[in-house]
Amino acid sequence: MRAEEAYSGNVFIAAKADLEEARAVIYGMPMDWTASFRPGSRFGPRRIREVSLVLEEYSPHLGRELGEVPFYDAGDIPLPFGNPGRSLEKIGRFVAEVLQRDKMPIGLGGEHLVTWPVVREVYKHFPDLAVIHMDAHADLRTEYEGETLSHATPLRKIAELIGPENVIQLGIRSGTREEFEYAASSGIRFHPFEVLKPLVEELPALAGRPVYVTVDIDVLDPAFAPGTGTPEPAGITSRELMESLHAIARSEVKVVGADLVEVAPAYDPTDQTAVAAAKMVREMLLGFVPA
């Protein structure tokens, strides 16, 4: 099930070689075809894997190490350059196969539009799905400059698919008036500016439910993650993001999939964004995937 043969070293640290024994599958979605400010997130998945080698396999926060979590790195899905529609179809087919094999999909983006076909497939398996979304941007537009397939529209599509009341949005600090009005009137559990405190308050109501977690790296303040396509000042710290992932991991929800998107390595020569992303992915693996 290799999406693309990995070159030497380009797998996430401690990934297992045996797909059949894996409980989760990491895969890359190298797409930035609808970027409206700075392209380059298509290079994010590869760089996250490369810098993951700087991490320890052990998380002192969760008391687990990656050797205890059987996961497989399938490489990047080969996507047709510049074609959002066909790219989303290919992502959807790939994730459908992961789910058919009874494995948790953990995606690396890529622009945030890539989350849409993933959630669509996960929803087919889990009709009572809830989505936890951490981001600087609401992503609730119906279209952007005439395009309905845009990095600005995935959460609107998801809300209309699974029901707005099943979407929890956290850390939002940018959007149009119409997006904020839609969030207020639609029933979305919408929490601007903050992440950890409102998340902890929301989690008890999700106990026992399947949950998909999607994290846009720009939920972090640009001081912590400058390497992204649309940086937005006044964000949260990397520590708060990690503690939020831990809160989900320690809750009674059943995480059935996750992704981390919008790392654009070209805008951060220090790699601090990619390293932060890799660490968050490590915590997702250790916190969300059962042994």
UniProtKB/TrEMBL annotation:
Residues holding Mn(2+): 112, 135, 137, 139, 216, 218
Cofactor: Mn(2+)
Note describing how the cofactor binds: Binds 2 manganese ions per subunit.
InterPro entries linked: Agmatinase-rel, Ureohydrolase, Ureohydrolase_dom_sf, Ureohydrolase_Mn_BS
Statement: the UniProt record of this protein carries the keyword Manganese: yes
GO biological process: putrescine biosynthetic process from arginine, via agmatine; spermidine biosynthetic process
Protein name, per record: Agmatinase
Lineage of the organism: Bacteria, Bacillati, Bacillota, Bacilli, Bacillales
